[in-house]
């Protein structure tokens, strides 16, 4: 076993060899206006005890990461657009010279003021879409009308000139529509589509993630706007 002083020296030397911090993910909230069947974070509309950091805390994290050389940040949730401090954090990230600022969103919440903030700060958008078929998409999100809102706001993002990419999670209920969904999105002017799979944690880790089952599509479990 190394003496304490030697161990500390070795740790310090190892720390100095690190190549800085390249990417920062900031989970602003665990709250979400949807309750997607596969959500690893088990996010939902109710306030969460997991929301313990303030906007000032996130600013400090941005500053500390920037001091380590980080130049890319992604704001996630929950649903990050529900966090009131998001515009302030985006502005701060740009002031700290972050070169890549991205918001990962379900695309259902996009007031004009927030869209303007995205445009003014050259924010990249990552948006979840589960199917070209509204019924399938809404079965995944458990919110009737979510597909309509997401697609409408995607069109606004594209029209505003934002860089948009799509995250498409393939599962039993939508795996037969992956190709048609990609074609549908290309018709909207969106070329970047990443197809992924569910994570076996949170709601994605249990039998409830089988969205195609009768219970998942029952009107009693699917909310409307």
Describe the structure.
- This protein is an alpha/beta fold and 225 residues long.
- It contains seven helices and eight strands.
- It has helices at residues 4-16, 55-67, 86-95, 112-120, 134-141, 146-159, 178-187, and strands spanning 24-27, 72-76, 100-105, 124-128, 143-144, 164-170, 192-197, 223-224.
- The longest helix has 14 residues, at 146-159.
- Residues 1-17 and 211-221 have low confidence and may be disordered.
What is the distance, rounded to the nearest whole angstrom, between the alpha carbons of the first and last residues?
A: 63 Å
The ordered H/E elements are HEHEHEHEHEHEHEE
Helix content: 25-40%
Unreliable spans are 1-17, 211-221
Rough shape?
globular
Descriptors:
single chain; 225 residues; alpha/beta; six-stranded parallel beta sheet; 7 helices
Draw up the topology in text:
Layout: H1 4-16, E1 24-27, H2 55-67, E2 72-76, H3 86-95, E3 100-105, H4 112-120, E4 124-128, H5 134-141, E5 143-144, H6 146-159, E6 164-170, H7 178-187, E7 192-197, E8 223-224
Write a short abstract of this structure.
The chain has helices at residues 4-16, 55-67, 86-95, 112-120, 134-141, 146-159, 178-187; strands at residues 24-27, 72-76, 100-105, 124-128, 143-144, 164-170, 192-197, 223-224. The chain has 225 residues and is an alpha/beta fold. Strand 3, helix 4 and strand 4 form a beta-alpha-beta unit.
